[in-house]
Amino acid sequence: MRFDTVIIGGGLSGMTCGIRLAEAGQKCAIVSQGQSALHFSSGSFDLLGRLPDGQAVTDPLAGIAALEESDPQHPYALIGAAACAAYAAEAPELLRRAGIRVAGDCRRNHWRITPMGKAKATWLTIDGYLTAPEPGKLPFRKVCIVNVEGFLDFYPEFIAEEFSHHGIECRFGSINLPDLEQIRRNPSEMRSANVARVFDHDRNLKALAARIGEVVGDCEAVILPAIIGITRNDSLEVLRRHVAQPIYLLPTLPPSIPGIRAQQALQHRFRALGGEYFLGDSVLRADFDGPSVKRVYTANHGDIPFEADHFVLASGSFFSRGLVATPDRILEPVFGVDTQYVPDRAEWYTLRFFDRQNYQAFGVRTDRTLHALRQGAVIENLYCAGAGLAGFHPVQDGCGAGVSLLSALSVADRILNDKQS
Ligand SMILES: Cc1cc2nc3c(=O)[nH]c(=O)nc-3n(C[C@H](O)[C@H](O)[C@H](O)COP(=O)(O)OP(=O)(O)OC[C@H]3O[C@@H](n4cnc5c(N)ncnc54)[C@H](O)[C@@H]3O)c2cc1C
Predict the structure, then answer these.
(1) How far is the CA of 81 from the centre of ligand 1 (A)?
(2) Which CATH class is domain 130-250?
(3) Which residue owns the Cα nearest ligand 1 atom 9?
């Protein structure tokens, strides 16, 4: 099989790169092993929440400009502050073209609310989710939190406790339905995706609207866990038609309904543009021809190679097995490209979970144009994008989705320019 570009990994970065290339007319394939970090996502996309010295960032583009000076190995510094600004303007448009409606401003972080009720700085949030311009500046003073009976991946009491610090009063309500009994029998079935399937039936969605009407009382707004709309787009609109007060969603613990929906929307967009998506297949190895990758082989296609002019490594970090740790080394298993890590294993992590962990910044070494390196030499047609890149702390610095989106767009541009020249 022959393509213009083959992308390894179909998470946020692989899909973004594939969509951008397919929009420009390239024949692209994405091979993706399985679930991506999107299945665990908050429904918000972070650009930059903190600088590496811990300083909070209000203007992510200004923060990226500062990083370019202070942290030259950070992927944003490699891409360059000016290019980052251009891609940060382009990314939400690409998401919207895929049907993912997001709001946010790359010049000013807003605040999303976590499943525990904490406020966290972010860049883009999917429509329908509760956000605030400042922590505690929520659009209500009294709110009704409605949960599903027996659903343990959402914490109304913690949320109420957090909100009380900002003078917001919470009332609780819950719903039970005959169709929920089926999944309630087994606690491991009582997860957001299964609950959402129940509420995708019209009669259950209407029952939820009716229940909200019964419990909302004099509250100004309603909060629901993200347990609606896994197979349909209009669930929140239907509820809003039946309930007078505004309704806001909050993310739950995984699986993430907004993330699953985003993943599905990106896949759909890529395929609609003519892209070929090989889900459930793994790229195992590659053949090289001097400084270039010639072809890759996958688990499902055996001896049938995938050949291309360009390859993009978007296989993620440890979480997605794009990187693998042995007792003394960090490996990239497909191409065996160079990785950046601290040699002394004792320095990989500290036992204090919330500390800044060194291993989080381990990843694939690239040159300034995001070409991967092998034994110190540039591989001319292999780029790396996304969570597998070295040199950044996605969680601590709140830049996970931003690095994935911006590096994917940067790589796509470089491939399109390579093609032209
Ligand atoms: C649990 C979790 C939650 C997160 N939540 C957020 C959030 O809410 N907001 C935010 O801004 N950031 C979040 N992040 C940061 C996250 O890394 C990025 O937001 C982003 O989604 C990562 O996308 P990616 O495509 O770079 O990598 P991934 O999402 O990891 O995707 C890599 C893909 O490559 C596939 N793959 C791996 N090896 C192979 C192979 N050999 N062959 C074929 N396919 C392969 C994997 O199966 C996977 O589908 C989160 C990260 C994690 C781990």
Answers:
(1) 23
(2) alpha beta
(3) 45
